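Problem: given the chain below (240 residues), write out its structure.
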Amino acid sequence: MMGERFNRQLRVLLLTLLVVALTGCASTGDYQDPRDPAEGFNRAMYSFNEGLDDMLMKPIAKGYKAITPAPVDTGISNFFGNLADVGSAINNLLQFKLERAVTDVGRVLVNSTIGLLGFIDVASNMNMQKYGEDFGQTMGAWGMDPGPYIVLPFFGPSSGRDTVGLVVDWYTDPVRYVKPNHWRNSLIGLRAIDTRADLLSASRVLEEAALDPYEFQRDAYLQKRQNDVYDGAPPPEPAD
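Solution.
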């Protein structure tokens, strides 16, 4: 019964997505944000992701949060954060931020040993800053424009530059090289659930505070990525 209901909801969702994508490729209003030339398509992708999240990811994340003790939840987040520091070190090196790259490497060494494979974030307690650089930021530091705003299915907000960055980041992700494959896939699934569980409170704020959640998420994402590329000190934007 539950399987039939889920399949029916999924078919409705996919049909809705198709209709919106076919009819909504133009801007949804008189003003066309130049950063978002495919707003109609992006809104369709946003609706698809929200529907999938409501049916699948959010219930799983809530269940995970309910049954996982807080110290274990924190440890799992720390473990994946430690793996992410590997990619951050590579990208800081590519950006010639040598001091930051050394800090990232130091964090991995400290947390992987004293921190028991990263489950305890000893490095942060030692005032070793976490940077979280990715290849999208690296291309931005090299002078590449972000390109158009894009909402990717399953992955969510992105840009032309960050979409390319996602592909490169996959090849520097230590999880990719875990063998056998079922262990790798299990880690990918656990990371996705842990990340979604950590965002439950943020999604509630978005739902309650934003008149247009799509526009709010788009503007917040683009602003954050601009700040990321310029390490929190972006140049002033030109007046409209």
